[in-house]
């Protein structure tokens, strides 16, 4: 499927409500348990998504449009949420994510990006040259990746409880390595 | 995490609204595309979940409680949705799933299952002896598995559009084999 801004935004718009519906008011065991050392709980993932709204997607799109490759992106801190989420409830994080996403999608609309801008380039600190289209497509897949991660992390908690059915539930074989 | 009926039901209750929020009114490309031969689109997955509500979880729980191992479960048809969904819109399927799930959770409540029933056993046509607890835990992980599958199937459509970021988005490496 070729990248299309409206179709991409259709997914980006739905993510906060999808996560709210999946996670809000769930018993804490479901949302505060991770998959083992150096893995994230659903609570951690929402903090990571919030940091992305603040520091990643729109910030980088602006750099591409305003500076091109002359100003490389700032590196993204994959662990920022461990400090930034401190003291906040999951419900608060879900609302914060929704508000930031809404604001960022409004900004994206104001940027009036057209297909002619899709191939404009920027410099990623590790990946090198990337295009605006690739950045926006990645924003979408990043949302979907973390929705799947949350579902997997929750499912893994019943790894032994499902008994012999473990063989049939593919997600129980995808555990984070 | 040990199986607990209330905690399991907290997830089972949320699944229909989560899927409705994620999928309803999305452009058709997102919901009608699968991952290649012999894989399912999000539309197909919702039909499969509907068939599970009709033929699998509650039906099997009743067999365990009423007949134990003396009456094996009926085999589950993993392809029923290709006929049953015919002519229905995704919006209709999402509502049908929600209504069936609501009815099944009401039935589950009426069954007044207690921890003392968790180890009651039934005969699975392929897996052999299984317990009521394992059946109910599997219902939960099966929901989560299909939420993750839908997210992955959608993300895979941008496999090439993300360019070099493909290396960073783990779900793009989980493509159904």
Task: Briefly summarize what is shown.
The structure is a homodimer of 177-residue chains. Chain A has helices at 5-23, 28-32, 42-55, 57-67, 81-84, 90-110, 132-156, and strands at 121-124, 128-131.
Features:
56% helix; homodimer; 177 residues; 2 strands; elongated; two-stranded antiparallel ribbon; mainly alpha
Could you tell me the number of beta strands of chain A?
2
Distance between the termini of chain A: 29 Å
Strand-and-helix sequence of chain A, N→C? HHHHHHEEH
Oligomer: homodimer
For the sheet with most strands of chain A, the description reads: 2 strands, antiparallel
- Give the low-confidence spans of chain A: none
Query: Hey, which two chains have the biggest interface?
Result: A-B, 53 and 53 residues
